[in-house]
Amino acid sequence: QVQLVESGGGLVQAGGSLRLSCAASGGTFSRYVMGWFRQAPGKEREFVSAISRSGSNQAYADSVKGRFTISRDNARNTVFLQMNALKPEDTAVYYCAADWKLNTMVVTSTPAEYDYWGQGTQVTVSS
Q1: What is the pLDDT of residues 9-36, one digit of tens each?
Q2: CA torsion sign, 33 to 122 to 39 to 14?
Q3: How many CB atoms lie under 10 A from the CB of residue 58?
Q4: Distance between CA 109 and CA 47 in Å, rounded?
Q5: CA triplet 62, 65, 66: central angle to 5 degrees?
């Protein structure tokens, strides 16, 4: 059983930056694809970014490409999401998730494929 705890959310003005962290415990972190998703009020949960087990491959939603960067530190069992040039439409609860995979290179963008989820951290971007 993997436990995921997000941190780093908060209130920021448009154009600002935040760095989200997700600390994992209870499993072998390097065996999991790690992803970030978000859910705004009244909307479905949507894919934001994912990183392969090795960290060599990343995927991003079109809406965040060029502004967000995902990374992971397998020695510290932590995945990060650096968010720059934030916009009011980025306001949402951000969740990290873990997807067990044999392949070290694949990334996953489908929520249903993820096995474990964190409790979420609120990001609010004011205009």
Answers
A1: 999 999 999 999 999 999 899 999 999 9
A2: negative
A3: 15
A4: 6
A5: 155
